[in-house]
């Protein structure tokens, strides 16, 4: 067992010992050429073997069915093409007759969409094909060879099998002449027996006339995906196979801890998206020329392809959200700052760190405990010498409005005196090896078994372990971190589970590997929901569980982080395209470890990372066991002051961020957005991956290199921009402008046309902000107009689902700012009122309006009017008091909950 632990720790530490050792990592993980199903399909043109049997083509309102024949093998497949009312078509291809190939269980997606179908009209039919129309989408199905072309509003969107790379390996009996790799494959001493033989599929998807595709996380690479094939920057396809990749490299195609088989393609006038609902190992090649060609090869399962035809980025994401669900609305505390390290050693350490934040007047919300807090890595227990009074410790932290998080990993120490192990063992809750006995692998605790969370029964049992009576030493202030849930198995092939392991329903791990993480995450979150329903039977408590592994649907469960990055500038930089990609694939609640997990950041890197990190939807500082301590006040007073200012900036922005999360929750929109998403017509922005938007109203340009005194900022055209520190308008010169920077901050701008709600009083945590009044920043566009929203609820329970929330629309037009109720179709009306007021309104960009104006305020309920002076002043309370770039309305006492109008008139 010692050896096992040593091996595990050794693996995790290797990154420290061998910084940037590319060779080592590459050897540990499989490439396409070393993987039978990938190498036998990559670039292999067998698509012409597939033909539709014309007589089989049947159209039935919203669904076309046909038999697809593999001429060469004389095998038949069933093809089903269905148009759905939520803006997509779904293509299913499976063997005929069915041989029971694996399909992703329905609980990975949401329900409802299956029955909301859209009619398909047959436009024409010939001996060699049929042309169908549904809404704005045209589907041209060619019989021989089998191809499908999709266009939207007459613009070519997608072609299937136009490069002749489609393939579907049917099940077959074993033959002596079968090539190596069909029935068995060995990698680094691990033999994968393949009882079902070869069953891969290849999808050939061309995006005609596009130059940019995005998505298929997770990897540390560019936002606009680089080519992988032929004469390409990457000679290796992108891989989707959840793995524990210790100290990953940036700028690399290999897949990390999570997978979402979603890709978006964007060109002027059209955005299209695809989702292959398949949880097996997958490789995706990207070829760039006049079009973007992609080849997707999956090891097993069926073809279950969704094509989102909504035509714009927001519409594609809204449609995907109808299928995979939206981001669960997080608790407000979880959007504050999280302080983590491997490990906060004991109760005294916790107290000191918690006190350090107050002593240095830096807000934070959550203190985290990594694996060393447990009794020998037996999760849900405590090391009683280090944490003798965990309840008192949590209550103490909670007395200042804060929370704690403990880590709970999916490997269970094989120790019959450990209650979790023995209960799960006797109930038969573990994943089985190929022989049918409990799988025994190595992880942090040594010999471990793994809960078979793909079973609803096991998830239900797991959820029950989180009530405060079951999880001894826990309180309602404690939330959970799920790590290592790819799953990580230190002595397994590629540090994960064997593909011939067996799950609930006799499913091979090969088929559902990429689901393990989301199911574990789901079971844990269900546990916190259950606990919440006991603590507050009426309203419950929204779970907060951070996960490392993920799949489609994870957004409904909780946030993820990008795993073990490094304290290097390149990792700070790549965090932006990584998080933007997650937002574009429906998983916006994500963050990267601020400071970098491995290694020791210097003061400058630390500063710049906080200045960027405050915009991460999930904002946590974390560090490896062997690193030097790096709480925000350990780098000297100047650095502390800068980090304090940055973190306070995050807290000031929380009303805006929380409002964006509401939109993510209702319509699947990302929090951080690439510039092309907001400015889809500006082609020079399609590959921009350093700058990003926070919602649609703020532009951020991180500083990603040391000793930087100037940066080039690209200001998308068609909008005015205002410096978010001073309020100064950006002179409308060139699109890209060189901007001076100092260590105090990074360039951030308000977009003209936006109203951004803020809370500017420095507080120790989100709980302490609850009664604080708001500031509205009104940044006028060229027409002197602006709009924005504010969403408010109790920040913690499910009461918002019953309408206990407040959602306001702010509109500024014709010198009038109004607040009205926000109404959203399909969402219950908000009925909450709060006593909070708006204490400042700051107008940016009003024409020479600094003097001689006043504001007439009309109460929308009583109709009463009163007048308040308008004066030139600073943009924010934290800005220099002599700054006069803004027109400030002080103490207007505008009620947040009611209608009102502020009219600017000349004195
Ligand atoms: C790996 C995780 O990625 C890291 O964040 C954590 O600190 C270690 N496991 C120890 O639990």
Automatic annotation (TrEMBL):
Pathway: Glycan metabolism; N-glycan metabolism. It comes from the Eukaryota. Residues 668-756 form the Glycosyl hydrolase family 31 C-terminal domain. Gene3D superfamilies: Glycosidases (3.20.20.80), glycosyl hydrolase (family 31) (2.60.40.1760), Golgi alpha-mannosidase II (2.60.40.1180). Its main location: endoplasmic reticulum. Residues 328-660 form the Glycoside hydrolase family 31 TIM barrel domain. Residues 79-285 form the Glycoside hydrolase family 31 N-terminal domain. Transmembrane segments: none annotated. One of its GO terms (biological process) is carbohydrate metabolic process. Pfam families: Gal_mutarotas_2 (PF13802), Glyco_hydro_31_2nd (PF01055), Glyco_hydro_31_3rd (PF21365). Residues 1-23 form the signal peptide. It is found in: Endoplasmic reticulum. The keyword Glycoprotein applies. InterPro entries: Gal_mutarotase_sf_dom (IPR011013), GH (IPR017853), Glyco_hydro_31_AS (IPR030458), Glyco_hydro_31_C (IPR048395), Glyco_hydro_31_N_dom (IPR025887), Glyco_hydro_31_TIM (IPR000322), Glyco_hydro_b (IPR013780). Belongs to the glycosyl hydrolase 31 family. One of its GO terms (molecular function) is alpha-glucosidase activity. One of its GO terms (cellular component) is endoplasmic reticulum. The keyword NADP does not apply. This is Glucosidase II subunit alpha. Keywords: Endoplasmic reticulum, Glycoprotein, Glycosidase, Hydrolase, Signal.
